[in-house]
Design the sequence.
């Protein structure tokens, strides 16, 4: 399943990828390029879903799932700006089935081969936010933080949530753990849904030996992403804990910028 918003050029390249020739693709357009998306979907045998307004990533996925016929096949969530190497989907599917996982994702890398912030992490708590913001996850790599550091990601983990830019889920994942939260138009949906699902017993794996190129992987530095994450923290931690955790989170990012570090 691919959600498009103003990325038809990248979508065209993705739909023409032979890796997807044997798969049933649903392309959702969030009221950005309906005519072009419709044409691309018809050309490449994908199923188009043209929405009348931009309802956001999570709501778009939920709407597509409501309209799609029931299937026993795994569900792949994929951004238009992700390049998938040959054999990746087969390998992910094999591990998902063999290890009886609820979700598995490859390591995301940007065009410079760097791992961006937000490939995966742990549920928002006062501790996980503090551990990440105060660099404890860098000093103590076994420590759980809101976001995985590059070092943690490269070694692979079983996190509470994974980035939905390229994520393979079991066929019944959304039935068992509910739809994607629709609190935000963009950003933090993967943290919110994965955290809630893992709390209910979902098992996710970051396959560090497999990787994809995510051209849009720099969103972790954006103010929109930061704001969405802060609001999620407050929703997950009511009262003073949420306010304190949100302040710690933003302070940690400011320190990173002052030191000239990446936000990872």
Sequence:
């Amino acid at each position: 399943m691919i959600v498009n918003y103003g990325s038809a050029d990248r979508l065209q390249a993705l739909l023409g990828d032979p890796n997807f020739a044997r798969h049933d693709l649903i392309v959702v357009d969030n009221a950005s390029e309906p005519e072009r998306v419709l044409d691309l979907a018809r050309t490449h045998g994908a199923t188009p879903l043209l929405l009348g307004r931009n309802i956001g990533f999570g709501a778009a996925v939920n709407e597509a799932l409501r309209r799609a016929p029931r299937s026993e096949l795994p569900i792949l969530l994929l951004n238009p700006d992700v390049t998938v190497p040959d054999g990746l989907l087969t390998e992910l599917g094999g591990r998902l089935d063999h290890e009886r996982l609820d979700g598995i994702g490859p390591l995301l890398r940007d065009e410079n081969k760097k791992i961006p912030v937000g490939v995966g992490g742990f549920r928002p708590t006062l501790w996980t936010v503090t551990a990440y913001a105060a660099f404890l996850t860098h000093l103590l790599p076994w420590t759980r933080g809101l976001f995985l550091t590059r070092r943690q990601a490269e070694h692979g983990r079983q996190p509470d949530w994974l980035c939905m830019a390229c994520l393979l889920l079991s066929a019944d994942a959304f039935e068992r753990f509910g739809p994607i939260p629709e609190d935000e138009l963009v950003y933090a949906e993967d943290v919110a849904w994965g955290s809630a699902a893992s709390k209910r017993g979902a098992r996710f794996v970051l396959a560090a030996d497999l990787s994809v190129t995510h051209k849009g992987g720099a969103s972790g530095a954006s103010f929109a992403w930061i704001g969405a994450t802060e609001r999620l923290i407050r929703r997950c931690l009511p009262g003073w804990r949420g306010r304190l955790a949100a302040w710690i989170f933003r302070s940690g990012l400011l320190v990173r910028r002052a030191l000239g570090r990446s936000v990872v």
User: Anything to note?
Assistant: The mean pLDDT is 92. Residues 1-69 form one domain.
